[in-house]
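Notebook entry, structure prediction.
Reason for the run: the old model in the group folder had no record of what sequence produced it. Starting over properly, with the input documented here first.
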Amino acid sequence: MMDEREEAEYEDLSEKASNLAIENIDLKAKIEKLTEWADLMVDEFRRIRACPRVTEEIIGLCDRAMKESRYRIPMIRLFEERGEKLKDLECEVLNAKDQIARLKEQRDFWIMAFHDERVARISAHSAAEEIAVEGFRIIDGKVEEIGNG
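New structure, fully documented this time:
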């Protein structure tokens, strides 16, 4: 049985997992577009450099542009790594949900076990008090044992 706080935490984790899954799909689409763009730009700059009447200035611009495009590839890899991390986090959320369920089962077990033990102790304690009370009497504020009178 979940209390309100646990239900809220569970719903919050579920919502975060859903949002992360959506973000993961968006990131994959962006990664694909960026990869295609970088490849296309490098190809275009190679074509420009291959033209017969290209000046040194244009060659320099193309080289810088290709360098920038190649720089973006590590950024794409970074996006991919973050996507993998996202998957790991989603697994952690699922594991946390399973662990919460197991802990709730254990909590319910221990609550019942504690309750049963407490009832048994109260019953035993009450019986001991009755015996003790039956064996003694109080006269003028002094406790005397019955039978030793």
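Summary: The chain has one domain: 4-108.
The old model has been moved to the deprecated folder.
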